[in-house]
Write a structure and sequence with these properties.
Blueprint: E1 5-9, H1 15-25, E2 32-38, H2 44-52, E3 55-58, H3 64-71, E4 76-79, H4 83-86, H5 89-106, E5 110-115, H6 140-147, H7 149-154, E6 159-163, E7 166-167, H8 170-173, E8 179-180, E9 186-190, E10 197-200, H9 202-215, E11 223-225, E12 229-231, H10 233-244, E13 248-252, H11 255-259, H12 266-278, H13 280-285, H14 289-295, H15 302-308
Parallel strand pairs: 1-2, 1-4, 2-3, 4-5, 5-6, 6-11, 7-10, 9-13
Antiparallel strand pairs: 8-9, 10-12
Helix pairs in contact: 1-9, 3-5, 5-6, 9-14, 10-15
Bound molecules: NADP nicotinamide-adenine-dinucleotide phosphate.
């Protein structure tokens, strides 16, 4: 343990961080040990990580001092923020600022910041193709992350900027699974036309991050985009149909219709999908599949993910 480099992981009981924790634990001879940061070391998930071999420590990303304490002595740190827990871009930026400052205080050698594009570089607020949200954002949960990149560079934290992509797990956890339409047929609904959506199994994000920590200095200061596959709604529906053993259709709606669905964050997601679609070549090009596969040879395609998760995908 003493000669292994410690990677401290925020969101360790969640999707991205959890994938990284499991990737490190699955490679005991890889030279790394893992420290899971959680707000509650006594939760069932935290205890399960401890049983699996992780060091589990308390830390809250809203509290810079607690985070710096949780990072002390670590070589690397994985930083992910929690937009959907509060739906506030300002709070997300504050979380990122705390992470950067705490990483500097702790003298982290290699940080990975799980970020996304500030879409306003492509769609300025004056561009009316999509509404401006919350007064100054186009895609709040993207923009706040991209805007926060500077906290890490400002503080001189040796950082890899990891551009993630759409989790296919949203079909399980985010209400995006197939639903029966008026015709009684199952369909998935996306506002993407026939444009390709860059997606990934959430578990593979952590595995790619582990590849970046193993690569070390070669990735410091770099932006790395990852996806498991770039797939159209039609292709996703067909693969889901094969996995579930029944027909699944693709219900292509417009971004405006999607924004109007009314659930919390529907407007943010409608703008996000429109950004994916309108800037398809940029978005997919920034996430070459070969890069993710090199970092993580077990990278799954959508069809592989769907087949492996068919019993977890709710449909009704
Ligand atoms: N869904 C997608 O398609 C997608 C795609 C790309 C990026 N993202 C981004 O991914 C991020 C979320 O990551 P995730 O999906 O890995 O999260 P997640 O699965 O929801 O996990 C969140 C974990 O974060 C921890 N957490 C929450 N608030 C915290 C705080 N104040 N201090 C410390 N820990 C805290 C919680 O751990 P404890 O309860 O143990 O403290 C929880 O287990 C979001 O910002 C989202 O925008 C999502």
């Amino acid at each position: 343990m003493a000669d292994r480099k410690i990677i401290a992981v925020t969101g360790a009981t969640g999707a991205q961080g959890g994938g990284l924790v499991r990737a490190i634990l699955a490679d005991p001879d890889g030279g790394f040990a893992v420290r899971a940061i959680t707000r509650d070391v006594d939760s069932d998930k935290a205890k399960a990580l401890a049983r699996a071999g992780a060091e589990v420590v308390a830390g809250n990303v809203d509290d810079e001092a607690s985070l710096a304490k949780a990072l002390a002595g670590a070589h690397g740190a994985y930083f992910v923020t929690f937009f959907w827990g509060h739906l506030s871009p300002e709070k997300e930026a504050a979380e990122a600022r705390n992470m950067a400052r705490a990483a500097k205080t702790a003298g982290i050698t290699h940080a990975i910041w799980s970020t996304l594009e500030d879409t306003r570089r492509w769609v300025p607020l004056s561009d009316n193709r999509m509404p401006t949200l919350m007064g100054k954002y186009k895609v709040p949960h993207f923009d706040a992350k991209g805007e926060s990149n500077h906290f890490f560079t400002d503080d001189g934290v040796p950082t890899t900027f990891l551009l993630t992509s759409f989790y296919w797990d949203n079909l399980i956890h985010f209400g995006m699974g197939p639903k029966k339409g008026p015709d009684g047929k199952l369909a998935i609904t996306l506002p993407m036309g026939e444009k390709r959506l860059s997606g990934i199994a959430a578990e593979d994000i952590g595995r790619c991050a582990y590849g970046i920590f193993k690569g070390g200095a070669e990735f410091v200061g770099k932006t790395v985009g990852i996806a498991g596959e770039h797939v159209t709604g039609s292709e996703m529906a067909a693969a889901l149909g094969r996995a579930l053993g029944q027909e699944v259709r693709y219900n292509a709606v417009t971004p405006a219709q999607y924004r109007g669905f009314g659930f919390p964050g529907a407007d943010d997601l409608g703008n996000m999908f429109q950004f994916y679609a309108d800037f398809e070549d940029y978005f997919t090009g920034a996430r070459p599949l070969s890069v993710a596969r090199k970092l993580n040879p077990a990278l799954q395609t959508f069809a592989q993910w769907a087949a492996a998760n068919k019993d977890r995908i709710p449909f009704s």
